[in-house]
Design a protein that fits this description.
Layout lengths: L7 E2 L2 E2 L5 H13 L8 E6 L4 H13 L5 E5 L23 H9 L2 E5 L10 H6 L3 E5 L4 H6 L4 H16 L2 E5 L5 E5 L4 E5 L9 E4 L3 E5 L5 E7 L4 E2 L4 E2 L4 E6 L2 E6 L3 H12 L8 E7 L20 H4 L5 E5 L13 E5 L3 E4 L2 E4 L6
Parallel strand pairs: 3-4, 3-5, 5-6, 6-10
Antiparallel strand pairs: 1-2, 7-8, 7-20, 8-12, 9-11, 11-17, 12-15, 13-14, 15-16, 17-18, 18-19, 20-21
Helix pairs in contact: 1-2
Length: 355
């Protein structure tokens, strides 16, 4: 039952329900313009973060909104690589009745463990007119710090306009990063943390622009330095790693430290060429997202969506890209700091700083 107070034990946050967390969920649902006449489904799994399911229920109750709960079993782990923070949930595979219900509803509150961003069923759900709010698998303290606001939407819309009108993105750093991305035929979305239009998807926390390049659009090299981030592993780089990228695919991983060894092994473990392919590129612009957050939470308390939105980072990601007709469970989110990001030669991020 709900109770007041929250404490830390051994660095791990407890899960007593706080009123401010309920209010944070209610605030985001109001931004999504959820209405009483709409059909709302809370979608979760057996391994979903239970407190977030409870907070969603309490927030909807507070707003006087009716809802349905659909809970599916978390798929059994198969032999092979451990999947974390992929955005490509397979919880709806072989769940045709559940998918049918999602096609018929107005709002899906997505509390699956991995999220529906790149799930095989997502495109059909969106085409049906349902809108999806993915709530990242974070401890609610993280979510409540990152309740979105109108400023994020305005920033996202401006970034969206710039990306959609650009022919080329370049990313460079003094360390040696030199990446070129064709923006022609790229699919770009701005994520500000809520969705209020049919057929759209957003994730909370938000504050990021992401472009999914068409096939054969990305080439160059990424030179990661200590302090950059590997969010799939929930760690900062501690040694230099160089990725060579040709026609979308990571073709070489150089580095002498643990970081490079882990990445080589994880890429190879999927035995899937698409695991090496580019998923999306973009940058973060959320001033509330904290670069040091990885040092402040136990790994079980975070899903690292906050770090994707840190203002001024360049986010290069590998894995599923439905716009290039590639699906894979392999995924890396790799924010790089202190880059210059330019669209058709015009800087939109300079040395990791927004204008």
């Amino acid at each position: 039952s709900p109770c007041c107070g929250s404490a830390r034990s051994g660095g791990t946050l407890t899960v007593f329900i706080e009123h401010r967390w309920v209010q944070a969920f209610a605030d985001v649902f109001e931004l999504c313009k959820m209405r009483k006449q709409e059909s709302i489904i809370i979608l979760s799994e057996s391994q979903s973060r239970l407190i977030n399911v409870q907070l969603a229920e309490l927030a909807l109750d507070q707003l006087g909104l009716s809802y349905f709960n659909i809970k599916v079993p978390t798929p059994q782990d198969e032999p092979g690589p451990v999947i974390r923070s992929s955005g490509a949930s397979v919880a709806l595979n072989n769940q045709s009745n559940v998918v049918s219900a999602l096609l018929e509803c107005d709002v899906v509150i997505d509390l699956t463990v991995e999220g529906l961003m790149h799930a095989p069923q997502t495109l059909a759900i969106l085409k049906s007119g349902s809108r999806i709010l993915n709530i990242s698998n974070e401890h609610p303290e993280v979510l409540s710090r990152l309740v979105p606001n109108q400023d994020l939407k305005e920033h996202a819309k401006e970034a969206l306009r710039l990306c959609r009108s650009a022919k080329q993105m370049t990313v460079r750093s003094t360390a040696g990063t030199d990446l070129t991305i064709s923006m022609q035929s790229a699919a770009t979305v701005g994520v500000w943390g809520w969705t209020d239009r049919p057929g759209t998807l957003a994730h909370w926390p938000g504050g990021i622009i992401v472009s999914f390049p068409a096939a054969g659009s990305v080439s160059g090299r990424m030179l990661y330095q200590p302090g950059d981030m590997n969010l799939t592993f929930k760690r900062y780089f501690e040694s230099q790693v160089e990725l060579t990228i040709k026609d979308d695919y990571v073709t070489n991983i150089q580095g002498q430290g643990t970081d490079a060894a882990l990445m080589r092994n994880y890429f190879a473990s999927f035995q899937d060429p698409n695991a090496y392919a580019t998923s999306h590129v973009g940058w973060g612009f959320n001033p509330a997202a904290r670069y040091e957050a990885l040092t402040m939470y136990d790994k079980q308390d975070i899903n690292c969506t906050e770090l994707r939105a840190v203002a001024g980072n360049f986010l290069y990601s590998t894995g599923a890209n439905e716009f290039a007709e590639r699906f894979t469970r392999g995924h890396f989110d790799l924010p790089m700091m202190q880059c210059d990001i330019a669209l058709d030669g015009k800087l939109v991020v300079e040395q990791g700083m927004l204008p």
